[in-house]
């Protein structure tokens, strides 16, 4: 199982991307800064997407779109849970077979 590490700071990623745009290779940067070449390549591709200039063959979502998608998925899970709770409550009340009192029945 691969080891996980905390994400690199945004400033660090941005500096690596700038160095790559200045002509340094991802392999060279990876060796110097202690991250993988694939990670550097991913950062370069994501930066291009965020700027609206995707690299050829690198489709995907911008960081803002990813954040919105994560928020929408969270909201969707919450709404599904609320719906399930209401459905169970409705079934429970229906199984009891009792009528709820109304204000007009005295």
List the helices and strands and how they pair.
Layout: H1 10-21, H2 26-33, H3 37-50, H4 63-96
Helix pairs in contact: 1-3, 2-3
What labels would you give this structure?
single chain; 106 residues; mainly alpha; Arc Repressor Mutant, subunit A; 2 domains; 4 helices; 64% helix; 0% strand; elongated
What report would you give on this structure?
It is a single chain. By secondary structure, the chain is mainly α. It folds into two domains: 1-60, Arc Repressor Mutant, subunit A (Orthogonal Bundle), CATH 1.10.10; 62-92. The protein is 64% helix and 0% strand. The protein is built from four helices and no strands. The radius of gyration is 26 Å and the shape is elongated. The termini are far apart.
Number of helices: 4
Identify the CATH architecture of the largest domain.
Answer: Orthogonal Bundle
Taken in chain order, the helices and strands follow as: HHHH
Measured between the Cα atoms of the first and last residue, the distance is: 68 Å
| Poorly predicted ranges | none
Portion in helices? 55-70%
The biggest beta sheet is recorded as:
none
What's the quaternary structure here? single chain
The tally of structural domains comes to 2
Strand content: under 5%
The outline comes out as elongated
Question: What fold name stands as the CATH topology of the largest domain?
Answer: Arc Repressor Mutant, subunit A
Q: What average pLDDT do the residues reach?
A: 89
The CATH C-level name of the largest domain is Mainly Alpha
**Overall SS class:** mainly alpha
